[in-house]
Amino acid sequence: MKRRKRFLSKLIQKLQIFDKLGLIDKYRRKRLLKHTYSENEKIESAPPISMDWPDEMIKPYVGLVKESNYPYSYWPKFERFLQTNNFRYDYFNPYREDFIEEAKKYDVIIWRSLSDYYDISEARSKIYFLERVLEKKVLPNYESLWYYEDKIHQYWLLKNANFPVIKTYAGFDHEETVKFLNDTSYPIVSKLRTASGSHGVELIKNKNKAKRIVNKIFNTGRNTNYIGLKQKDYVIFQEIVPNYGFDLRIIVIGDSYFGYYRYPNKKDFRASCSGITEKKDIPIELLHLSRKVKNIMPKSYMLAIDYLQDRRDNKYYIIEISIFIAIETSEQLMVNDIPGRYLYKNDKFIFQEGRFWLQELMLEEFFKEIIKGNSK
């Protein structure tokens, strides 16, 4: 059964680039709406989180965005946190024409932007307006949304901070890119600037194919899996890293750390789309590195960092980072088959047993920041 699911998933990814009518997305949405929850996917599988609030401080009025009605949507967990902690809230629809007038009545806006190009583009423009013009406190903030699902912005930030990143070429000049293709080793990986779940990730085995792709990108543009959107006048190429057959995702929220290992389908080099995961101990040195990355990157309330371990030196290198991820269960870390989290306390990491919804931990961090800001 699992093999059949992996085969169908792989086939759908290959066909999606040719799906001009969006039929695959329609099928996927229909299938998601029929989803049956397992025990650890149900919201009650983890206890609600209560936070302390200063008696003298009025709680903000919250506008909560329902980003979708699909399984694994963020907003039901956000809503439970607001209810548990007695926040006054209403549903806010940022997609309406009159969103500006509606937004003015709220003190804060909670909005999990979806990960496709069009949703992110709309969220970036509107959250900029909500934050910078209406002066609302928003989750996510604009500076973290600036690099969300943008592999070029992420690469600039990580490289500038001297973090270990996979060797990457992000080019906007045709002549320079052709020179790079002449000088590089093959195969290489080509990526779209904005795409999640391994969409737009392609293995290029030789120089001739690479040049054909590049010439099209810098001429008429190359079709993508997004209807009506072409890859035009930019490229992202990454080195193929000889690795141990997995990537490792570490998730940081405040002083809470989670993570799991992801494995690719057979004869595939991409692990993020396979759905094959293993939850076990995480190397302590990577937890410390992830803490540094989280502290230096523009402020976010959750940061997921994906790593590959290079066989040549056994070091871990960053593939990409994200402020939102797919969260299917309340068990995002397991050590010796026990669900829990690593807590950073007194300059060291300790394991704490328990189940947690990451969305609720995010809101706890968000409101802690508001309390801290109001107490200055």
Q: What do these coordinates show?
A:
With 376 residues, the chain is α+β, with helices and mostly antiparallel strands. Helices cover 33% and strands 22% of the residues. The chain contains eleven helices and 18 strands. Strands 11, 12, 13, 14, 15, 16, 17 and 18 form an eight-stranded antiparallel beta sheet that branches. Helix 8 runs antiparallel to helix 9 (207-217). It is globular, with a radius of gyration of 21 Å. The protein starts with a helix and ends with a helix. The mean pLDDT is 90.
Q: What percent of the residues sit in helical stretches (DSSP H or I)?
A: 25-40%
Q: What coarse outline follows from CA principal-axis ratios?
A: globular
Q: Kindly state the number of beta strands.
A: 18
The low-confidence parts are: none
Helix and strand composition category: alpha+beta
State the separation between the terminal residues, measured CA to CA: 57 Å
Order of helices and strands: HHEHEHEHEHHEHEEHEEEEEEHEEEEEH
Count of alpha and pi helical runs: 11
Quaternary state of this entry equals: single chain
